[in-house]
Write a structure and sequence with these properties.
CATH superfamily of chain A: P-loop containing nucleotide triphosphate hydrolases
Low-confidence stretches of chain B: none
Bound molecules: adenosine-5'-triphosphate, magnesium ion
Distance between the termini of chain B: 48 Å
Mean pLDDT of chain B: 93
Order of helices and strands of chain B: HHHHHHHHHH
Mean pLDDT of chain A: 87
Order of helices and strands of chain A: HEEEHEEHEHHHEHEHEEHH
Structural class of chain B: mainly alpha
Low-confidence stretches of chain A: 1-17, 254-264
Largest sheet of chain A: 6 strands, mixed
Largest interface: A-B, 23 and 18 residues
Oligomer: heterodimer
CATH architecture of chain B: Orthogonal Bundle
Number of strands of chain B: 0
Strand content of chain A: 15-25%
């Protein structure tokens, strides 16, 4: 099959040749709440070791999809699979998530990280060296002893990423991790994500920023009305969206803010 | 009116003289109430936290019962404890009636539902905020309760103060089970209630002033706790 593809002149999208194994998958996934079907017969496959980007309009169901995959919500129909098997406790422990609105405990920055690590069963001796290394990388080391909730929104967002990564996950879910961040904070978060990727962490990230999707993402899943309407390499989907919804969404963005979505 | 100011002057001089009877009564009051509040916290904090944090079976029932018990009339509690401890009651052999222990038991029964019900409310609100983060991290049940109690510490301190305020000002229950025996079970509220009718007005008024000051102190403490919680951004 690959041979056949290589023979075709100028394939519009290079097929990712040695497909990495599927880490998380869902088929026929449904989720109902408030008498409405919010996730509707959704199929998705997250491949191991890659950075998958989820895009779509506000209210499309992206955050719900992340919660379902992370096991925080129980699907009304369908099943989330982890390496082809039903998700169990061990699988859950191999994941971490940064929420759209980070939740910090009413403690110091340091105590927040210590709490997360102690929950994950790290001994006190190993903990602090790891914490300070992580804080340094996020440029938060000066804030270690401040109450986490006095940090600015952007600092809390970075702390949330640090906390998730400190848990040493195999799979990291990020729900708009750089929304409402200034460019340098956003850069700091992207650096953290890149560092995690270099360590082999699989990343699933929601973003509204096509430029960020191009910088960080490899696979793109476009969500519309509770369904994944298009999946493929980021470049291909953004440049040549095949689905009506993705096309309209990209056009809408360009129309609303011309020039802002020029890829860097 | 002249009488009032005269009594007031005598009451204040009693306080300033550090009158031994007065001090004994205040000390016993504080010992009984602080012990009762401590026991109520040991029972009520974990109970309220568990009911607030988990969808355990019978949760609604427990909540309704706790809220109902919060409004228990102290005289009824006193009566029930009296019946339990009286010579012919089930706990009669312990011979606790008319002892400070009996008063501690009665006040503990009064304060525990208050602490538990308020704790449940505080913890439930906090858990609503933390639940997803806890689930994501995979926090176990015991760790969850401990973390919630710790993070709600400022609110829970005001809960304990509310319990103290109610217990220290309560008269019906401790009067019935304590009996206001001089130098044994005489506390501030029972002294005021009984000495007034005997005409011992300056002692009653002195204790009234102390109770007022205590009430002010409790309120000031609550405000100080709130302020330091805000300062530490722990609200
Ligand atoms: N518990 C719930 N009960 C009822 N409706 C819900 C519930 N949770 C989410 N929804 C609805 O489901 C839809 C999808 O929500 P979701 O948070 O997944 O959107 P999203 O794609 O993440 O949007 P955004 O880009 O604004 O974050 C929304 O219309 C939302 O109102
Ligand atoms: Mg969302």
């Amino acid at each position: 099959m690959c041979e056949a593809l290589r023979d075709t002149p100028m394939p519009p999208t290079p097929v990712a040749a040695p497909a990495s194994p599927v880490l998380v998958s869902a088929a026929g996934l449904c989720f109902d709440a408030g008498g409405k079907r919010l996730i509707d017969d959704l199929d998705i496959r997250i491949r191991e070791g890659r950075c998958s980007v989820i895009m779509g309009a506000n209210g499309a169901g992206k955050s719900l999809l992340l919660r379902l995959m992370h096991g925080l919500l129980t699907p009304s129909a369908g099943e989330i699979r982890w390496r082809g098997r039903p998700m169990d406790r061990a699988a859950r422990r191999a994941q971490a998530m940064v929420f759209q609105r980070p939740v910090m405990l009413r403690r110091s920055v340091l105590a927040n990280l210590r709490f997360a690590l102690s929950v994950r069963g790290l001994r006190a001796g190993d903990r602090d060296s790891r914490i300070f290394e992580a804080l340094r990388r996020a440029r938060l080391e000066d804030m270690a002893h401040r109450p986490a909730r006095v940090l600015s929104g952007g600092e809390q967002q970075r702390l949330a990423v640090v906390r998730a990564l400190a848990c040493d996950p195999e799979l990291l879910f990020l729900d708009e991790p750089t929304a409402s961040l200034d460019p340098s904070s956003a850069q700091a978060v992207e650096d953290l994500i890149a560092h995690a990727r270099a360590r082999g962490v699989t990343v699933v990230m929601i973003t509204h920023d096509p430029a960020q999707a191009r910088r960080l993402g490899e696979d793109l899943h476009f969500v519309h009305s509770g369904q994944v309407v298009e999946s493929g390499p980021v470049q291909a989907v953004l440049d040549h969206p095949r689905s009506e919804a993705a096309q309209a969404w990209l056009d809408g963005r360009l129309f609303v803010a011309p020039g802002q979505s020029t890829p860097t | 009116m002249g009488d009032f100011w005269g009594t007031m002057a005598e009451a204040i001089s009693l306080i300033l003289q550090w009158d031994t009877d007065l001090i004994g009564i205040i000390a016993l009051s504080l010992r009984v109430t602080l012990t009762a509040v401590a026991i109520a916290c040991v029972i009520g904090l974990p109970l309220g936290a568990v009911v607030g944090a988990f969808r355990i079976p019978g949760r609604t029932l427990v909540t309704v019962v706790l809220n109902a018990l919060m409004g228990l009339p102290p005289v009824v509690v006193g009566l029930i404890v009296y019946l339990m401890l009286s010579a012919s009651g089930p706990l009669g052999p312990l011979q606790l009636l008319y002892t400070p222990t009996a008063m501690i038991i009665a006040q503990t029964i009064l304060v525990t539902p208050i602490v538990a019900a308020l704790t449940k409310q505080v913890v439930e609100d906090l858990h609503g905020e933390y639940a997803e983060q806890f689930a994501s991290l995979g926090v176990g049940r015991i760790d969850r309760v401990l973390a919630l109690l710790w993070d709600a510490r400022y609110s829970l301190l005001t809960v304990a103060l509310a319990g103290f305020g109610r217990a220290v000002a309560e008269v019906g229950a401790v009067l019935i089970v304590g009996g206001n025996i001089n130098h044994v079970t005489r506390v501030m509220t029972t002294t005021i209630a009984l000495e007034t009718s005997k005409g011992n007005l300056q002692l009653a008024l002195a204790l009234g002033i102390v109770l007022l000051v205590l009430a002010f102190c409790v309120n000031a403490a609550v405000m100080a706790v709130r302020a330091s919680a805000v300062r530490a951004a722990y609200v």
